[in-house]
Design goal:
Layout (H helix, E strand, L loop, with lengths): L17 H8 L58 H7 L14 H51 L5 H6 L5 H7 L5 H35 L7 H12 L28 H9 L5 H24 L4
InterPro entries: mS26_fungi
Pfam family, one: mS26
Length: about 300
């Protein structure tokens, strides 16, 4: 007897799903998920129990933005907007109450009701907004006063015992300086420094006066006119009729002096100084110049100015 069942299709192993085959072969009898595909280096290779994650309520995001509120009430004249006079001028009632007639009577009545509603809303809105402003200002003032009082209390609060016991050692002068109490030694040092500053200022003033007096005394020889300049040039360089002579020679230029003349050396000056006491002429000549300079300096000290 021949079988009437449908012929079985031959399916190759290569055409079957690999994951389905793997799941059919390794179906565990457990509620835990298999971790056979995780290697030893994976963090989830060892199952570690975790605490349940808390469910935080997320705040609903409000779409759109609110406009910046207008300054409806002026700080100076803002309270006048809630007075009966201002409200009466702003929301005037109709001068004559008319009852509309005709085909558009219903529409005109509707517009009258709308106008009355607008007047009522404007009056109540101004009053409520002003009351809200007063409450907001009062809360701001209270919060500011409370914060200022807290800050002042924290500033004036004395140092805690643990801070005093654990603070670094501070010497007494520094502590007195921080507390505003100056020591006697500091006052004396301050007075001494003030006296030194006054002496320095007096010295600077005296030097300025002396320099001014010296300038005044030496200003007599300053060349300020063309005639004085011509006179000085003629005195140094001579005139065509009477030219200046150099080194006692009959030459009119310093470059025409004999090459043998040269300025005195240090040894020449020493020899001249040592020979001053040997000759009366040199002795007198040597005494006159230093003595003259000393007498001039003494006279300047006695007179208090340059000579």
């Amino acid at each position: 007897m021949q079988s009437t069942s449908a012929p079985r299709l031959i399916v190759s192993k290569s055409s079957s799903c690999w994951s389905c085959t793997l799941a059919m072969r390794s179906r565990p009898f457990s509620t835990l998920s298999p971790q056979q595909a995780v290697g030893p280096e994976h963090p989830k290779y060892i199952d570690i129990p975790k605490a349940p994650q808390p469910d935080f309520e997320t705040r609903q995001r409000l779409k759109g933005i609110l406009p910046v509120p207008r300054t409806l009430f002026n700080p100076v004249t803002g309270s006048q907007k809630v007075t009966p006079e201002y409200l009466g001028k702003t929301t005037k009632e109709p001068s004559q109450a008319k009852s509309p007639r005709g085909p558009n009577a219903e529409r005109l009545l509707w517009k009258q009701r709308l106008a009355e509603t607008r007047r009522k809303n404007l009056r109540s809105g101004l009053q409520e907004l002003y009351q809200r402003k007063e409450e907001t200002d009062l809360r701001v003032v209270e919060r500011t006063t409370r914060r200022q009082a807290k800050n002042q209390e924290l500033v004036s609060r004395p140092e805690r015992d643990d801070e005093i016991l654990t603070s670094a050692s501070v010497d007494l002068p520094l502590k007195m300086l921080m507390n505003g109490k100056l020591s006697v030694l500091r006052v004396e040092n301050l007075k001494r420094k003030q006296a030194g500053v006054r002496r320095l200022e007096k010295r600077k003033t005296d030097e300025q006066k002396d320099a001014l007096h010296t300038l005044y005394m030496q200003a007599r020889n300053f060349i300020t006119t063309e005639a004085q300049l011509d006179e000085a040039v003629e005195r140094v360089f001579g005139t065509p009729e009477k030219p200046a002579m150099f080194e006692g020679e009959a030459v009119t230029s310093v470059w025409d002096v004999k090459s043998g003349t040269k300025p005195p050396s240090v040894q020449d000056l020493l020899n001249q100084e040592n020979a001053r006491n040997a000759t009366a002429m040199f002795s007198g000549a040597g005494f006159s110049d230093p003595a003259r300079q000393r007498l001039k300096k003494i006279a300047e000290e006695l007179t208090g100015g340059k000579i």
